[in-house]
Amino acid sequence: MPILFGKEEFHRALPPADLSLDEEIFYLDQTKEIFDDYDAYFERLIQLNSMEWSSSLSGKIGLTYEEAVESETDARTFIDSFPEYLENPLLFLTHKFSSRTRIDDLVNDMFVIMKDRYFIGEEVMYREKSAKKNARILSVSYSGGNWSPKKNKQNVHENGTTEKDGSKKPKHKAAEPELPPPNSYLYTIQLLRGDESDEESSEDEEDDDGVREMVLYSTLSRPKDFSTKHRLKIFLRYTTEVENAILVVKPSLIMDHRLEQQLWTSIFAGPLPELPQMAKVFKAKPSEKAEKSRKSITEKKEAKSTTKSPKEEVNGTKTEKPKKKSELDKSAEKAKKLSKQQKKILTQQEDLKSSFEQGEKFGVIGMEKWRQTERLLMPEEIEALKAAVKEAKEQRQLEERERLKEQRRREREELAERRKPRDDLLCDDLEPLPDYRPLELPSWLSAEMFAELLSLHQFFVCFAELLDIRDDSVVSFNNIVNAVFSNNPQKSPISELLSILLRAKAERANEEDGDEADIDNTDDIGNEANCDLYNKVHGEHIRKINRLHENYRITYGESPRNLPSDWLTVTEVLYLNLKTAGYYPSGKIYSHRYFNRGGIRCYEDPGYEFVLENAEIFEKLSQVTVFELNPQERLALLQVLTRQLLTYTTYRDTLDERMNSLQETKKQIKQLKVWDVAQEKEAKEAKLARESEKEQSKEQGEKSDADEKKSDKSKPGKEVVKIRAYIKAVNDGRRIFNLDEVKSIMLADVPYDEMELYEIAEVRQHQKSLYEEKINGLQELMCDLYAQLGLCFLGRDRTYRTYYFLEAIPIVLVEEPTSIPIGECEQPTPLQLKQTNETNNNLDEERIRRLACTGSNQTCPIHGASRSFPRWSYLSEKGTVDKLLEACNRRGFREMELADNITNIRQTLSKTIDEQISTLSEEEILNHLALSPSPEEFSVENIFQDLEREIRAMILDLEEKIETRAIGRIECATDRETWRDSLEQTGDTTAYCFKNEVRIKYTSKDAEPVFKGEQLSELDSIARLAIALLQLAQGIKLECLNPPFTQEKDKKDPKVLPSTTFVNWQQELLSSKSISRIALLFNTLEMAIEWTQLRGQGNKCKICHKRGNIENLAQCRDCDRCYHTTCAKFKIPKLYDWQCPDCVEAEKIKQSKKKGRRLRDELEQHRGMNDVYEDDMNSDVGAGSSHENGWSDSKEKNYSLRGSRKRGETSDRKSDTRDDRKRRATARTSYINYFEKDDSYSDASSGDFSRKRRKTAENLNIRALSMGLRESDSSEIKRQLQLCEEIVRATMHHECGLPFTDPVNLKEYPDYVEVIKYPMDLRKIMSKLKYFEYDTAGQVWDDFKLIFDNCRAYNDEDSELHEYADTLQSFVAEKFRKGFGMKV
């Protein structure tokens, strides 16, 4: 169809026929026209740019020529792509049933019929099991029964009035077609398998013929591209024409589609549709009187036209039309020859020539009555002419303003529509994204596990404070990878990570869960309507878990969550926690937990779900240790603990708080940017206003006027005065006292309109610098918040790839989505041709280059089979961040968020990539991510042997302590030495069971033995270790066991009886299937032993190192030290329930600290007792004794590692001499030295494998030797550690050693922890040596060096402590060189 200008069809102008080769022409590219006249060219150009064009095909009006051509092209493209299965039904309905005269009414009829109804042969979308499939309608059946249209049908006019008897009715809503409702029809469809080629089909789907019957309309849908009213209007406008005022189908289409031969049942089913019938309006026949009057008027007009006026006779011309300008000019030349009256008429017409031209220009109607030469115009007529011209001019101006206003409104709407956010793949201005380097993971690490490890690392980093992680290296990414993949107990940190999580879970559960409810007590259960114990699916299982939790609590004396864990027991503690996960707490606690933890139920506990879903891993955990599991299983255990922690209120609130802080910071940055733009605008406006005032004052040129203006100006406000003072102080380099107040003013709304011209630019510059400082501070805060969240989620791009920033590593990773739905191809990305020189045929190549949708599953790089992004990649080249920001489309939902987040931390990202990542190779990147080399693999057999050897050593050591302290004796059928040798060599003591059977002690005499006879020879090594521990436990005296292993008979009778806990403990021990359970039961037994009972029996005197007669052996009630009354030179009032002098001193010091003062008199009275140990100390100190008298009284000050900032303050112990302090330190260390030199504690042997086991002071005697050294049979290690102790003592006694002996007093130096992150002192080194926390002498030297480095970092270079640190470091370095040959 043609393009119209106004209401006329546009035709291109033909080129001039007489053009010559050297003639200048004007070529119009838009219409391909050639003009030889510039005025014609310019007029056509103006015409093309005017908004008076329209497209007859699309129906759009008010367009420019280019817009009309584009609209016409789009409409034709749509018509060409209109599906045939819809074209035929629409034409049939229009031809057979419609009699509409307006296109909008016809479109509405077709839209109503098509809504929720589908024609035979139509291709639709069928929804089956939440999946959409392509299908074709095979047939339609009607099931609506008898249906008839509404009665009293009326013929409806186009203007909405109704007609029955010819009278008009009021306007009402236009009638619509009538058909049975959509639910009256059932469809038979055929699934189209052409689009399912990429999906895997099962055997059942292959046998399916794809036919679906009795399909409801609600499961069907058609594409909206062809069913909207706008699209239907284009199609119907193209296929219809007007005939007798009614829209009918074009005859050619009737022939092509054979509409006359088609039936209603060939396209649909059921009753025929009832479409509104439009009444034809016929003109009434005029009356005879009216006809005669009409003929009379016509005859008079014809007679008048044939009669010539006098003027026409004179001039010989007719006056049918007004004279043109040229005719008026000729009339003026002949005026001299005319009569006087005629001359006046022509002169008047000449004077009104300009008015006539304006009238024609502005379209004044009826200009003929003023432009004539028959008579002179009266003044009133001339005024009427001028008024008509003025009115027409104003009307034209008004119309022009309205047109411009409408044009601007449309432009704003188009701009707003263009700026409106949308899906990234629907943006028509996409730019190519930069390329990223693929991350080639090692063969032992899958991409999925890498993602899980990153998520796990994020959890530890995010909640490091709640997890009480003091050393970040413990939860580093490298440590997590080793924990999951390394099974070497010596190197794998899996036990440390599990212990951290279990300890955190116990802390939270103690606060929010409590113990289990008594399921037999209805008051303890709570509201039945809200009780999980009555759940039909999980209720019975939860009841069993409650009983199990109670049983374990009785057996171990603690809830399973509170059991201490180390590398030996962590497996069993984890097993018990998972086994009892989901127990039902008491009613009040459950209600509180339910409402504060997101409505979580017992059966929704992640541990509970894990046990049900991973029964194989859970069963395996009951028999082996975590070191024997595979990496996937170890990772699953770590993940289930993290999921459990995330259900607690504290963790949920912490995460929400940090996310809210992050969102608030983003909001502040956004508001600050908007504020900066507004301030820039205000500054420019104020500057323009001042420049305008300056120009006006120059034009006036009078100085007095300028002075008057200055005097009239109002005084500046307080803010302006303060800003001026601030600017002047900055320029002069003076100190600014009210800086914070000025900053608050500058970062608010600055009153630029009150400032002078020369001030505005300078103030704005300072404001800009403060703004940038504020922005940088907020961005740094955002980086810190991202660091607290661990894995920083930056956003997704148009391809749905996810971007992460890991500050702890650091690196920017890009992940290919695996679980995020990315949809299917619906329509290609609408790229604009003006953006590229490509043609329509090559648009798909351009879309692929820009990573846009092509609309085809075969070629689409986003949704199709050709999608080929690596699972993990990373930003590796310099400038990649800037390229990514330039490529991100700010109108797309995903890339808009990605660009905003990258902008907020752009400096950090650019610095990370440009300075670190871009310089690394692929191999170095793997090292950077701690993914190379591969973790060390350890034999499972070796793991079990080492663990078994460790348990044997623990049992032997416990037996030694029990025997030494006379707490009990092994219950076996042989002597002690034979039993120990058998356990140490073979781990089997079953041959020494009484009566060749194993019984549970303190049960009924009729109880059957657990093992007997041949059963003992068939037991595995775990059961044999359990029997050895049982023989040892059954030999302990009941009075030496604490509750809950024992209980008193009653208050009157102090006799101790065995408890049910002890019986359950024996049963649990004999049923052990894993070595970890034996270790846990061993710890439970060890903690239950009352070591203070009868502990003097078998102990040695700390003076003579002999046991001697127990009747003469006195024992301190606090420190477990024993002394013969004949050996001690101090007074011993009684053998039991007394304190040694050292303990008395320690207790008094502790009390004095609480009161805030030192009790010097009570310390002095015990000073003499330390002289007994001087000889022993002199031999122990060695080289350190030479410095005993080197400290002068003049240096008795309160020095510390960073105390030089408070020089001059005296010490709290200024009354004590250096000898007093030395003797106190000597007395404390001498007791430990004597105890460690006791040969009775060095008999235990160990194998090749040993590991440190930490115990709390409540569980073990704090003076006991460490397990690690007892297991080591290397005399060289002992010698090195003893030599290190001598070096520490010598350093303490050095003349410069006193400031470094004790920790820094944080009350005196509160800022110490802000400067020094890892404090260290000599007493701490000695403590770590006593508990064997060092493996090599090099580690001891590192702590020495840390002391001296801390001192230099905190104190000034010219301070006295700086010199002490240098002197003492040289002294210690010389000792290490001589003692170990180390190069330090």
Automatic annotation (TrEMBL):
Keyword annotations of the record: Bromodomain, Coiled coil, Metal-binding, Nucleus, Transcription, Transcription regulation, Zinc, Zinc-finger
Gene3D superfamilies: Bromodomain-like, Zinc/RING finger domain, C3HC4 (zinc finger)
Compartment list: Nucleus
GO-annotated cellular components: CHRAC; nuclear chromosome
GO terms of biological process kind: chromatin remodeling; positive regulation of DNA replication; regulation of DNA-templated transcription; regulation of heterochromatin formation
One term of GO molecular function: DNA binding
Domain Bromo: 1292-1362
Domain WAC: 23-133
UniProt keyword Transcription, yes or no: yes
SMART domains: BROMO, DDT, PHD
Compositional bias ranges of the Basic and acidic residues kind: 160-176, 285-336, 1159-1169, 1206-1222
Source taxon at top rank: Eukaryota
Positions of the DDT domain: 447-511
UniProt-listed Pfam families: Bromodomain, WAC_Acf1_DNA_bd, WHIM1, WSD
InterPro entries found in the cross-reference section: BAZ1A, Bromodomain, Bromodomain-like_sf, DDT_dom, WHIM1_dom, WHIM2_dom, WSTF_Acf1_Cbp146, Znf_FYVE_PHD
PROSITE patterns: BROMODOMAIN_2 (PS50014), DDT (PS50827), WAC (PS51136), ZF_PHD_2 (PS50016)
Signal peptide: none
Domain PHD-type residue range list: 1098-1146
Region named Disordered: 146-184, 283-352, 395-418, 686-716, 1154-1224
PANTHER family per the UniProt record, alphabetical: BROMODOMAIN ADJACENT TO ZINC FINGER DOMAIN PROTEIN 1A
Name of the protein described by the UniProt record: Bromodomain adjacent to zinc finger domain protein 1A
Biological source species: Acrobeloides nanus
